[in-house]
Structure prediction request, 1077 residues.
Amino acid sequence: MEVFNNTTKIVKDDLVQVIAPGSRVSIAAACFSIYAYQELKRQLSNIDSLRFIFTSPTFIAEKFPKEKREFYIPRLHRERSLYGTEYEVKLRNELTQKAIARECADWIRSKVTFKSNVTQESMGGFLNVQSKEQQLTYMPLNGFTTVDIGCERGSNVYNMVNKFEAPFSNEYVRLFESIWNDKARLQDVTDEVIEYISAVYQENPAELIYFMTLNNIFSEFLEDISEDILPNEATGFKSSQIWNKLYNFQKDAALAIINKLEQYNGCILADSVGLGKTYTALAVIKYYENRNKNVLVLCPKKLKDNWMTFRGNLINNPLAQDRLRYDILFHTDLSRERGESAIGLPLDLINWGNYDLVVIDESHNFRNGGAVSGEDNEKENRYLKLLNKVIRPGVKTKVLMISATPVNNRFYDLRNQLALAYEGQSQLLDEKLNTRMDIDTIFRQAQKTYNAWSEQPPEQRTTESLLKKLDFDFFEVLDSVTIARSRKHIIRYYDTTEIGSFPERNPPISLHPKLTTLNDAINYAQIYEQLMLLNMSLYTPTNYILDSKLAKYIDQDSERSQSLSQSGREEGIRRLMSINLLKRMESSVHSFRLTIQRIYEQINNILALIESFRSGSQAVVNDISDFGDIDLDDQNLDIFNVGKKYRIDLRDMDYLSWQRDLQADAEILELLLLMVDDITPHYDYKLNQLLEVIENKINHPLNPGNQKILIFTAFSDTAEYLYENVSSFIKEKFHINCALITGSIDGRTTIPKFPADMNTILTCFSPLAKEKALIKPNLHHEIDILIATDCISEGQNLQDCDYCINYDIHWNPVRIIQRFGRIDRIGSRNAVIQLVNFWPDLELDDYINLKSRVEARMRISVMTSTGDDDYINQDENGDLFYRRQQLEKLQNEVVDLENMTTGISIMDLGLNEFRLDLLAYIKEHPHLDRMPFGIHTVVKGEKPGVIFVLKNINQSINIKNQNRLHPFYMVYVGEDGEVICNHLEPKATLDIMRLYSRGKNEPDQEACQKFNRVTQDGRRMERVSTLLQQTIASVISVKEESDLDSFFGNGETTFLTGSISGLDDFELICFMVVIGC
Prediction:
């Protein structure tokens, strides 16, 4: 007997001596490794035969489902040992396994038979060598690996092996023979082993490597998944009309939303403008309605018709077959106690607590939040009412929020929206999230990080630097509850051949018309100066109540609960009306004239009342209720609904002071009226320039035969003014039809006896996008010019049109992008599209300064009664440099919403779509987890290099939890060794892998042959191996930088926690070789 300690005296050296040509080798062991074969290749190639028994069930048909992990995982481990155990990682990382596996498979085919134990009876491991000269046995032998034969150090304290000669070995030879021939205990698995090893050296499709990567990264996600949180296809929602109208990227979003709603109770859909968020949400609604759930849609009043269309049993409803039945309420209905909703529901009788799903369109209107709890009898703001009436009571309510701008520079905005999903009780979400910190702490730290980042010099203030500073938990939250894809993302990572692409955008045309062609007429700057002198005291009568009489009028309850007092309401209205005047001036002379005329008459009525009182009559001042046509974001309309209507006795007022202030305003308004009265349509320079633009477009269409033009304005007064003048002009000159949609009055068209409802007009204006042939086949009219307010600036697909005109520039740049999004949509049949913007006749700096002066003077105090912050938010708009950048961009280029912000976009953070990719793939390919590690694919791409997918096997490593995929590390390294995407950018790397593998379910033979020529079929992998070492070096280098940052920074240090020494710390899962196109 001889003893091998496998350190100073190893089994491999002895086997080299004793395995002679013609020997017969018999092995009983738990696993077999191609690297053990590689060590003894010369000797094993000349033997007569080798018989191998797997001592535990391996490569046999599954008797236990995968869920029985105590059986499945160890067996998977044994099978994977074929191409190297966890202690042979270093050998696998040399990347020569492809060549070794090919040689080993050829050898097995000619020399080896494998059998597996099919019972649960345990067998010990040993190795017999039989030759003409001798008969030897080595035991115990756990496996036939480089560790067991002494070439590599394993994890055992000792690894002793005994060698027996005859006659002792004769017993082991007889034992092996008796087991080998026992058909009840063993099953031949040779073909399965060859097939498994062949997978290592065969050419692999890119799709397989992509999904293998996902399978490893998201293995825990797959284990935790349950049918409860996946869309239940048995509901039949995939056979619905809405589902079959969705594009592939919209279907992905709908499935992801359902998954998030089931798992986290809430989701924010923040896809870019023009990607059809409304249809995506309708698919989700259909899913829940099929499950007999009650759905409530909360939308701004201006978007009423968008949602009304799809629920009515009407011939112009393109989804009539789906019989959608959701309720519709306006955001402002939450501030009302009685009256009827849009669909005729009495507000005081609605069963608020019986909604299973609430869909909030433009949820950013709730982003400023408010208190999540309140005292008894406190007047609830809109936010609190939604929580207390709809979400908290009754059935469990899920919340889907739709927003084009869920995050600006205040991360609390996002948190406030999410709070609706977890009922304002953060622990409800904390329990479901895989985060170290609670959600309030996460957002507080993220805001702190952002604030510090925003104070850095511009050259250092990059998105990349911000992403590196934000904590892993922040990304985890966003990934869990948001879906956001940009136009670029859809074009790059989805197959859009069936859909079509986005049209090309021409640079915007920026026009700066003066007010009038009249000589010596007033200009914009002069009007602005006059407006700045107005005190608008018409709207603030309570400011003039005598101190001794205040108790008669002040709302004590509101004051105690810090709610909006009557004077606060008036102040809000005064400032909003002042801003409204400026906006109307920018819109049109006609709109401005109507407004100052209305205010002038109201002031004169009050002055007449005061004169009457001074003459001895009794007089009472009533609340002003006619505010005219107002363009305010929906969240601010509440200011006109809160507070009590009042009646103030003039005897209780300092009416002389009020009279003096009113007279001052009346004189300014009278002067302004005189100044603009002469500017009739004939002398309206802006209107006439619009007619020139329209004429030029019709005579020189951008796309052959397309005469369509969409004209937007903020005010219905302006829209009606334009319709009166434009419709007659184009009808007379070009014999084409024009229509008007304002949302406040019935539509109008130049077509006699035409049903001028909004949907019919839009269907005739955009017949292809609105499927006119299907829903209105007998309507043969076509409308080419559409004039509209912002009631159609969202949620409408009007992509038949290729020309959009902003007759006035909205103060919120988002609105401009949303307007253009009606025609700038994926799948457009137009090759190019055009945006035309009408700006005031001012230099950009003057324009910005004027706006800033107005905003500074008209700052609205926080309106706590509505739960909304400043109408003009200091944080968002106070930075003049930022405003100038935004407006300059809009003048010179058409920008996407995500590019309008200098802060962070959530477009590039989520990983959920990859999880859903994997779920769909695994249904068709359930054995993905049996793929050998270390395999690769070859693809053609823009940036030659290699994408390595590694698993860290040093448990103490993770850089301050910044690698969200730990222990997996993905690095895309260029062929020159430069890192293209480091391991802290997993989303970017996965996006690239997804792009390169899309539709590639077969290997690219041309690319593979090119790579194989260079590497001699995998035998010469030094260059790729060098890149792997550089990849691991890059991980170490990023870690060291992070360590130093944390050591010298304020936060928790990672300087002394865990170190990566190099190659041995990582296991190569797979890699994707990218060669030049």
Observations:
- The chain has a mean pLDDT of 78.
